[in-house]
Amino acid sequence: MIYLHLFLGFLKVGCFAFGGAYGAIPLIRDVVLSNGWLSDDKLTYIIAVSESTPGPIMLNVASYVGIEQAGLLGAVAATLAVVLPSFFIILLITASFSHILKTFTVQSVLKGLKPSIIGIICATGIYMIEQRLFYTEAAQEAFSLKALIITIIAAGVMFVPKHLFKKPVSPFIVIVLSAILGIIIF
Amino acid sequence: MTINTDFKNHPTLKILTSLFIEFFKVGLFTFGGGYAMIAMITHICVEKRKWISHDDMMNVAVIAESTPGPMALNCATFVGYRQAGFTGSLIATIAMVIPSFVIICFIAFFCEQFLEIQWISNAFKGIKIAVGILILDAGITMIKKMHKKAFPLSIMICSFLVMLLSYIFAWHLSSVMLLVISAFIALVFFGSKKKKSNANTTREEQNR
To answer: Which of B125, B146, B167 is the last residue of a domain?
Structure first.
């Protein structure tokens, strides 16, 4: 019953993958490799594809591994297994949200979590931009002028109308624009 | 978006249709994981559709990060439930999953050499840059809306510095770890503050 194995394997991922995709990847590696589903190289390739296609990375990996193992049905089993735990956990929290939210403990915890996540998000954004500008090639730090040009254009389109003129530009436009710029410049 | 007249007279169906369309779009355009998605969801659900408030968005982000599973899915489930109950959460979650599922199926069946195609990998190099900017934008928007008091500001700056240092020096510090520590500090801080103010009120009562 490969479908059941896929479902149970990815259910573990869905239940314990805290902290987004980058926290989930070690867990996925462990599940896939310990079951002997794929070789390490193939899995690395699948993770790279999943990062380059839209949608949550965890879901993409689950779908791809599912297909590799057992075709379309396998993909459905693996994807469902990742979706279901988070779906029901959020449903449970949301349904009792307004009630829980008013308690003093939860209020205090949220007051700590909110500023903390803002800091984490800003740090991640800055680090990701820095990663594109300075890349390592043959163990040497190099600066990419092409990346800098795209960064300036994309940042201009994103930040200037939104924070100076209060007219936000859709993030979709920024994504499409930078994809086109990538094709032209690189 | 075209909605025929029957839909317009049916509020639930209308909201379900727009939930589906918007989260389908988010699913199709979300590259690079959860944080980039916050910019997308904020744009759609807070600025464009006004489905949830900014403070709600902040709560979702925190809840999504502290629960397992992909952050984008958690947000879809939350907003869907807020708008149209269980059906809404189901529709929003499915809409979010479909695009990425179809694309992965297509690649796995027909296009094994996906990453070797030159123009796709170039487009993706461009997208990766935009992703960083979207994430930074989500952060800046949140800073603008936050309470600028000493406690939240110092938590924010500490988290920012620790996370950035952890990235630079590859400490592999989990963001969840950082969140747990912040929650603990807040609990102690506000707990002791409450105790103090309770003590003050009882003393005042005794003085009277």
So the answer is: B146
Under 8 Å CB pairs connecting chains A and B tally to: 357
Whether A91 and A117 map to the same domain: the answer is no
Q: What residues of chain A lie within 8 A of the CB of B129, using their CB? A: 129, 132, 147, 150-151, 154, 178, 182
pTM, rounded to two decimals:
0.82
Q: What percentage of residues in chain A have a pLDDT greater than 90?
A: 23
Structure confidence at residue B5 as a pLDDT band (50, 70, 90): very low
Band (pLDDT 50/70/90 cuts) for residue B4 is very low
Number of domains in chain B: 2
pLDDT higher for B24 or A160?
B24
- Better pLDDT: B9 or A9: A9
Within the 6-65 window of chain B, which residues sit less than 8 Å (CB to CB) from chain A? 25, 27-35, 38-40, 43, 47, 58-59, 61-65
How many domains, chain A?
2
DSSP collapsed to 3 states, chain B: CCCCHHHHCCHHHHHHHHHHHHHHHHHHHCCCCHHHHHHHHHHHHHHHCCCCCHHHHHHHHHHHHHCCCCHHHHHHHHHHHHHHHHHHHHHHHHHHHHHHHHHHHHHHHHCCCHHHCHHHHHHHHHHHHHHHHHHHHHHHHHHHHCCCCHHHHHHHHHHHHHHHHHHHCCCCCCHHHHHHHHHHHHHHHHHHHHHHHHHHHHHHHHHC
